[in-house]
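Sequence and structure are no longer studied apart. As an example, we show below a sequence and the tokens encoding its fold:
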Amino acid sequence: MTTVADGEADHALSAPAVKGTCPFDPPPAYEQAHKAGPISRVSLWDDSPCWLLTGYRQVRFVLGDRRFSADARLPGFPFLSPGRRELLDRTTPSFIRLDDPEHSRQRRMLTGDFIIKRVEAMRPQIQQIVDETLDRMIAQGGPADLVSQFALPVPSLVICLLLGVPYADHEFFQAQSRVLLDITTSIEEVESANRELTTYLVELAGRKQKEPDESVLGRLVARGELSLDEAAAMGVLLLIAGHETTANMTSLGTLALLQNPEQAERLRSDPSLIKGAVEELLRYLTIVHLGIPRVALEDLEIDGTLIRAGDGVLCMASTANRDEEMFADGGQLDVTRDARRHLAFGFGVHQCLGQPLARAELQIALQTLLERLPDLRLAVPFEEIRYRSDMVVFGVQELPVEW
């Protein structure tokens, strides 16, 4: 590895969302960068320089080191699109875009709602939601779109139950979420979607402030430590992350199993494998394909490469989770692999707060699908599946299936 001079880029990531021949693999631009070395200097969409980290060890180091900041307000922070950069000055940042102590202060307010013990107690409710949603899909008959009829409703219902958001409003918040996660949307579209979703949650939080309940949002405002805007910012984050990520993992994970029928058969014959299989699917698919952004707070070296204070860094969990040094034959799906050290949920103080809930939902949803629909299959050729390559969270647009 050689040290790159200031301002010099190894290559440009002008189209990082373009997929290769296998839709389950990381974008080719990142794979090519990784072949050249785990640390490279790149230019982003606006020609701003940035460090690209693609190796497992290097990504884990940065995500776990507090000398790299998640604060998007700092100079040099790498943005994935103009809409996301411009939105910064017009919104209240959520805690995932803050450093300690403010990050920890806000995160602690939510920790109790997502601890493993609390999530385990929710399993019967999640199972009921999964069963009832699948009942409706089966009753309507095939072919069916697994995304709109199963993968999206399940986590939407769960997060609405947890947050205290009326599920009757799901079409509204799902539409706004899609706009906010799309890296091709205009600044005006992003602003409008964020404004509408924030206004909705401010009004909902205001009602809960007057009439407290036991929902996450209700308890947040009852504490009296957050303004309605801060509570709404946390609500936006939890609402989007709580349904979009799990929905896309459910549909994409199902597709991966359909394309690897021997792996699906292993899970049917031995249900005890499901927990490890979900970890392997999280590693193999790593649906946050476009990188976890950070900015250096001081000069430091990684593997002999000098990264200066103010340098932006993109941590590619997608390539890190395929790194052969950590995961032998990382490009292959193996539901018996021990994949527990994957980075699909990030690492360090900012790792995903809701990962126990996501794991439970995925385990229940995928196991139930495999058990109840043993003949589940694609209703269209694999080559006709359309993907969400232009989204922060990768997935499929629709997944037509029959059984």
About this structure: The chain has 15 helices and eleven strands. Residues 277 and 335 are 4 Å apart (CA to CA). The longest helix spans residues 228-259. The mean pLDDT is 89.
